Amino acid sequence: MTLIENHRTSIPPNWSSKSQFTQRQWMDWKVEYTVNPMRELKVHIAHAALKERLKFNSKVLKLFRSKLDMLEGQFFYPHLFFLVDLEGIVLDIHGVDSLHPDLEPLIVRPGSSMSMESGGINAISIAIKTGENIFLEGDEHQLRFFKNWLCLCSPIKVQGEIVAFLNFSRHTPFVYDSIFALVSSIVASIEYELELELQTHNQIDNLFDTYCFTAREREVANLWLQNKGALYIGEKLGITEGTVRNFVKKIYMKSGVNDRGGFMQKFY
Predict the structure, then answer these.
(1) Contacts of 75 (CB under 8 A, 6+ apart)
(2) Which residues contact 96 (CB under 8 A, 6 or more apart)?
(3) How far from 164 is each of 45, 92, 102, 133, CA to CA, in Å?
(4) N or C: where does the chain have the smaller number of CB atoms within 10 Å of the terminal CB?
């Protein structure tokens, strides 16, 4: 009898577990990973490469941190949240402070790869392979660190395309229905804000087209809408502060406004 059967907890239909996959699939995944003698993840990217990935994923990273900061102090058991990119590289970890000193030391850090080749079978690596919501029990993981953890991984999607993965791991032998709802609600909240931001961006682009902004005017206008100053914009774009102010005048004239407040209202 499995852990889930023992505790009479059913997996929601939109979540997949080991039982949903064929024995052949499971064996194929297993052979992709050769156990590391150090029992650690095999791949860790360099700091410079991680910095680039953090920059590329800055929007989803910011939302991940803000959502979990709101949940701070509401967990009374060891837990970990991971934000992972499309290739399985860990971008951020939340909850390390919850780990008990007696637990096995954490061998995952930002820049570590949770892909099948690097970390074997885990909720993240299977979610990457399948694009599905994945639930795994401890013994189903190949990596020793997760042998006593329940792990749930869900893709984060924008307009149907996966942009990242959120993983929740809990150090416990008990399964509760609420953990599925917890992960789903966090992911849904992040997706909603990403979709909203994308819609706003598209609306702004359409208005730029309407007012016939040039490529350079678009660059200046985007930064001006972010409330950046002329000096900052000039340094960012490699032009003088005076040139920036001249562009702003042209942008105001084309869009029919007189100041930044009116410009903001026009686009938001």
Answers:
(1) 95, 98
(2) 80, 106
(3) 17, 12, 31, 12
(4) N
The candidate with the shortest Cα–Cα distance to 250, out of 213, 207, 219, 205, is 213
Torsion of CA 121, 173, 151, 125, to 10 degrees: 0
Q: Do 84 and 156 form a contact (C-beta atoms < 8 A)?
A: no
DSSP β-ladder status, 161-171 and 149-158: antiparallel
What is the arithmetic mean of pLDDT over 238-254?
Answer: 94
Confidence tier at 34 by pLDDT (50, 70, 90)? confident
pLDDT tens digits for 169-227? 998 766 677 889 999 999 999 999 999 888 888 888 888 889 999 999 999 999 999 89
**pLDDT tens sequence across 135-159:** 999 889 988 888 889 999 999 999 8
Q: Tell the burial category of 190 from Cβ atoms under 10 Å away from its Cβ (0-12, 13-18, 19+).
A: buried
Instruction: Say which residue the tokens 């889930």 belong to.
Output: 4
pTM comes to 0.78
